[in-house]
## 1
Amino acid sequence: MFIDEVRIRVKAGDGGNGCLAFRREKYVPRGGPSGGDGGRGGDVVLVANSNYNTLLHFRFNPEHSAERGRHGEGSNRTGRTGHDVELPVPIGTVVFDADSGEQLVDITEEGQRFVVAKGGRGGRGNARFASATHQTPTEHEDGRPGEERHLRMELKLLADVGLVGFPNAGKSTLISRISAARPKIADYPFTTLEPNLGVVSAHEHETYVVADIPGLIEGAHLGHGLGIQFLRHVERTRLLVHLVDVSESSGREPVEDFQVILNELASFSEELAAKPMFVVATKIDVAQDPDRVEGIRKLAEERGLPFFEISAVTGQGIDGLKRAMADKVLRSTAALEV
Ligand SMILES: Nc1nc2c(ncn2[C@@H]2O[C@H](COP(=O)(O)OP(=O)(O)OP(=O)(O)O)[C@@H](O)[C@H]2O)c(=O)[nH]1
Ligand SMILES: [Mg+2]
């Protein structure tokens, strides 16, 4: 199962208590105060780690606490600091406080560290309360509790290309043609219930990642259908590939389909609406009416969007599309690095 959101509880270590003690030595009738401070509790720290691609490892392990600080001891011994707990998270994880809804951090770089729960301070031992006029202090503090938090973590898939379109447009078929991904394909809407990721090899060792998401329908931004909850997955892609079924079997007008999806994207977020887009007419092998293809081609041209015709059955246009996607995402990577 594809996991992209988890809830966990984190608890930092409590501080150790300060100690109440007095020196007792032979031949020293009244030793001074000697209670040491408690140690600080360990922190819970999120650490970005690119070896992780999902939040799956939290699913079965949703509670994490750091070690408490040790109590202070006599002879002015300070308690040991509690060990921190480090939780590896994939790059692209966004972390929220589940109770307040506040966004705490966006994990974007390898090695990035973020303390989600701070260990409690150790309490002071009685030795710290001594002064010239207060030579036998009995005050000593308890350690402070470590922070406790409920977190909601969200992973936006870091795909380079997002496939969007109506249900049944042929998105899963395309990803299975160009990558090793083998999603379920069937001749009915909403076959895909969760996003699929496929790695496509381009030239030499270069690769890019394509995300196939469930189909979108009119009113998706209002919660109709399935695809909308997955649009956030494609928010960070560099390119949207918009598949439009031009065969008669769709029972709809390609030009209308195209507009509906554009509206849904724009209603979801400006960011999505502004993304570079390819327009792809699918199932060209069974398209009888050339006007259906021309209509959508014209629309793409008017908007300055590259246009492709493909058939996953005959293979027509697939290589060309694959190369164009590679050029687009690999070139825009270079542009970002400049
Ligand atoms: N003739 C023909 N059929 C195709 C082509 N591409 C996909 N299909 C068929 O169209 C149907 C839907 O394909 P899918 O790839 O499951 O469509 P999808 O866009 O992933 O659909 P959802 O997951 O429901 O959103 C399947 O029966 C495919 O075999 C094509 O190029 N030509
Ligand atoms: Mg599908």
## 2
Amino acid sequence: MPDDLLERLQRFTSEAFPTQRSLFRHLVDDGQHPLALFIGCSDSRIVPYLLTGAGPGELFLVRNVGAFVPPYDQSHGFHGTAAAIEFAVLNLAVQRIVVCGHTHCGAIRALYGEVPAAAQNLARWLDLGREAALPVAEPGPEVLRRTEQRAIVLQLERLMDYPMVRERVEAGQLTLHGWHYVIEEGEVHVFDVRKGFVPASQADNAGTGPYRPVAYAEDINGLDASGVPASG
Ligand SMILES: [Zn+2]
């Protein structure tokens, strides 16, 4: 079997790196100052640099199955995502946190099915999305899409339980962004506390909140007053 990966590594050093040598030199000398923490699903079809046009040094990335945010308050376990959130906010002082889910998400699909018995870590991890699942046995495409969006809002709310996040959001130093990437349309739908998920092409901004529990004047896209879309 040809070692494609080795060839790619060699090509990076010989072809890609030379074109950005000075940028990397700067990022080494000056350190990294990313503006955003990007919490994305591990799905291979999400390419954060393509979506945002970001280059080296611009995104602090953490990815996991489902783009889930573990609870801040935990007395057990190791959570790389929780550590990344704390580091990005306290050490790097990011100004934005993006939670990016997507269509056809295997993690969201798995909320409605069984996971292999040996996948005990996965089964436990999926608990972080269960609240987003709707009470149906056989979810169709529309239910899955709504569940994906509900899960994103759920993670934004959990982010607000991190004291360092809440403080900065309330001080206006940090904004939270919920993104639902519609792979087949090549467009991110951004969460707006007033409008629900809006295609980026029609949005006024890259998404807002929820920064604090929001009282909705009307039911929009099935969202209830807590900011989490209503069940059923
Ligand atoms: Zn996914």
